[in-house]
Amino acid sequence: MGNAEKLTNDLKSLESEVQQRLAKAVEEKDLENISIEFLGKKGKLTNVLKALGTVSSEERGQIGKFANELKNSLEQSIETSRQHILEQYYNKLAETEWFDATILPARFPAGFHGGDVKGHIHPISAMQKRLEDIFSSMGFSIMDGPQVETDQNNFGMLNFTDDHPAREMQDTFYTEQDHLLRTHTSSVQIRGMKKLKPPMRMIAPGRVFRYEELDASHEHTFYQMEGMVIDHTVSVSNLLHLMHTLLEEIFQKHVEVRLRPGYFPFVEPGFELDMKCLICGGKGCPVCKYSGWSEVLPCGLVHPNVIKSGGLNPSQWQGAAFGLGLNRLVMMWYGIEDIRYFQNPDPDFLYQF
Ligand code: DAH
User: Fold this and answer.
1) CB 110 within 8 A of CB 59
2) Strands ordered across the beta sheet of 257-261
3) CATH architecture of residue range(s) 123-351
4) Is the pTM of this model over 0.70?
5) Which atom of ligand 1 is found nearest the CA of 320?
6) Which residue's alpha carbon is at the smallest distance from atom 12 of ligand 1?
7) Cβ of 264 below 6 Å from ligand 1
8) What backbone phi and psi angles, to 5 degrees, belong to 256?
9) 192 lines ligand 1 (CB under 6 A)
10) What is the per-residue pLDDT across 197-241, written as a single tens digit (0 to 9) for each?
11) Domain parsing of the chain, residue ranges
């Protein structure tokens, strides 16, 4: 056998070797390996063609042409195998993972606002908005304050001294030196007094945080609305009248209230204001824990030290303050028995309001 014949045979056997290997290839990586092994710069084809120098120039032309065609056809075969492997891969995927491209996006249940609403107001936001409307109509400004507060605004300026045991009434998340997640919206009292010129009335709704053991009535994150009135003279009867009017506005019916003494460092005197239970009318039920009364509104007359912290002269200015628990109001309004629902992302909870 002449050199030319041997070379042609070698090329042909390369071809059948490649075809055999392609028949066994199962993934794209296999194809890549075949391509490098046979057609790469240092591959078998290049190696075989080294023998071109041993044939006559006429034969070299013919064999060279043949080798080029062979190379093209092998590349073509590899590409065909690639298509085949991908097709198999996608077919297999389609058997296990599929989606229905014709399905409509998720909607609110049929009948709920026409079943075609893009979002939904959270019941706490709805309650907040209602209160803001009521207070705005009574001439109150709406103040905002940061959720990460200074220790001073949350405690110090509110007459909690550094070692005041009342600091422990509110378990606190501390962030960094002298800062914390505000434990109550009372922190905005200080900001309000400094910003709004007295006489003034303000509310400050917002999110507050406590390092709590969670249960049906304790959450680490909840909502309050602080209220504050500063004027030349403010009395307990002014406060009581305001609280009573407010509750009747909220619940849209006659409500009976009572005051009990309560202790908060920033008010003196301080009170817990109770409302006759709306569920049982005072007879006693699980909601009011069979007492006939629900504790709704801690409040009091602003302590002179707090008036001073706000940059005002306590011999000229007096104040009343109260702190509404928004979660609690919403729970009473709708008869929700567990506070943890509010932070739960389950939309079925929201659909009910
Ligand atoms: N900041 C108090 C708390 O979160 C609630 C409170 C009590 C607010 C009495 C007041 C007040 O404005 O006068 O427990």
Assistant:
1) no
2) 141-142, 200-209, 221-231, 318-325, 293-302, 267-276, 257-261
3) 2-Layer Sandwich (3.30)
4) no
5) 13
6) 322
7) yes
8) -105, 135
9) no
10) 899 999 999 999 999 888 888 899 999 999 999 999 999 999 999
11) 3-96, 123-351
